[in-house]
Amino acid sequence: MRRNSTKRKSRTKRNNRTKRNNRTKRKSKSENIKFFMISYEGNKDFAKVTQKTLKKEWGYSSKIYWGYKIDNKKYKQNNVLYEGVKDKMLKAMLKHDGPVYYIEDDIRFLEDPLKIPKKDIVWSVYRKGSIENKPPHNVITGSQAIYFSKRAVKALYKHMNERKRGIHIDSYFSEFIRDNPQLSFKQMKSRLTPPIKTGLGYEELHESLIDPNRSWKIPK
């Protein structure tokens, strides 16, 4: 009886070690991924709520980068996010020297944002559209959350700096994916029952200066 008891204790210890090791592996896998949020000073309170929500609901920390506010001169509805990302965030993404998760300040995840396939680019939350549509409709609208691998970030840095003019950021990211077929890509679909149409999350209801005619909420 003692021998069987000793064996059971030994197995239990091994199983506990295995569980601890698996948790450590999962943790180390996510530790090098950094969440980069783009916002602007006038939306600071809303952005910080989003930051706290991501941490509270999913355990992921994020850093907010303060871009520009629309002035209808240099920064307009069609380029303000692009210019903010390029000027305020892009160098930090490259300097991180690892995978990054680009998120916007209205993101709400309904599924774990890191439960995604191993691809260079994973567009996890959006409004509509597909890269696979026939031109000129091969565009994804809404760039609420996009994962970039380390090599995708390097390609993004080069590609963005070579572009002469700013455009809508979701149109730009779509262009970047089309121009870099060597990078593996996945557009996520909801795994919820019933599924939603915008991937792994949605845009929290808010007033948008970029698109003031639309109020966003959980899609049906």
Overview in brief:
This protein is of the alpha/beta class and 220 residues long. It has helices spanning 2-31, 44-58, 80-96, 150-162, 169-179; strands at residues 34-39, 62-66, 100-104, 107-109, 121-125, 128-129, 140-141, 145-148, 185-187, 201-203.
Description:
- The longest helix is centred in the first third of the chain and has 30 residues, at 2-31.
- With 220 residues, the chain is of the alpha/beta class.
- The chain contains five helices and ten strands, in the order αβαβαββββββααββ.
- The chain has helices spanning 2-31, 44-58, 80-96, 150-162, 169-179; strands at residues 34-39, 62-66, 100-104, 107-109, 121-125, 128-129, 140-141, 145-148, 185-187, 201-203.
- It has one domain (32-203): Spore Coat Polysaccharide Biosynthesis Protein SpsA, Chain A (Alpha-Beta Complex).
- 39% of the residues lie in helices and 17% in strands.
- Residues 18-28 and 212-220 have low confidence and may be disordered.
- α3 packs across α4.
- The strands form three sheets. It has a six-stranded mixed beta sheet. A two-stranded antiparallel ribbon has the order 4-10. Strands 6-7 form a two-stranded antiparallel ribbon.
Kindly report how far apart the N and C termini lie.
60 Å
The proportion of residues in beta strands is 15-25%
Query: Oligomerization state of this entry?
Result: single chain
Strand order of the largest sheet: 2-1-3-8-5-9
Global mean pLDDT: 87
Helix and strand element order: HEHEHEEEEEEHHEE
Q: Count every beta strand, where a strand is a DSSP E run of 2 or more residues.
A: 10
CATH level-two architecture:
Alpha-Beta Complex
Radius of gyration: 20 Å
Instruction: Please tell me what the overall shape is.
Output: globular
